[in-house]
Amino acid sequence: MNETYIKVKGGGWKYLYRAVDKQGKTVDFLLTKKRDMTAAKRFFDKAVEANGDPNKVAMDKSGANKAAIDAINAGRSVPILVRQVKYLNNMVEQDHRAIKRLTKPMLNFKSFRSAG
Q1: CATH number at residue 62
Q2: Do the bridges between strand 81-83 and strand 56-58 make them parallel or antiparallel, or are there none, so unpaired?
Q3: Does residue 114 sit within a domain?
Q4: Which of 10, 33, 36, 38 is at a distance of 20 to 30 A from 2, taking alpha carbons?
């Protein structure tokens, strides 16, 4: 799980949360205006609802993402294991390159709605 930013015309920079599985396939994504615990929790809830409960989540050292998982784990009988090791998150980090490669020729998305 990770987030990157993309430019939206008239709206500035927005955050694209993405999760990929072990094979590198996109599990889920969410475009938000802010990068905070609320946005991260909304993304995790959406991903879990669509794909089921994960056993482990690998992420970077983002405090907002860790706080969101901690909030989710507080209400669970079996917590989700969080692995915050830089090299374990490389698969999704490398996948951001493809997103940037697609959006760069367009210069930016025309609106927040069309970006999501």
Answers
A1: 3.30.420.10
A2: parallel
A3: no
A4: 10
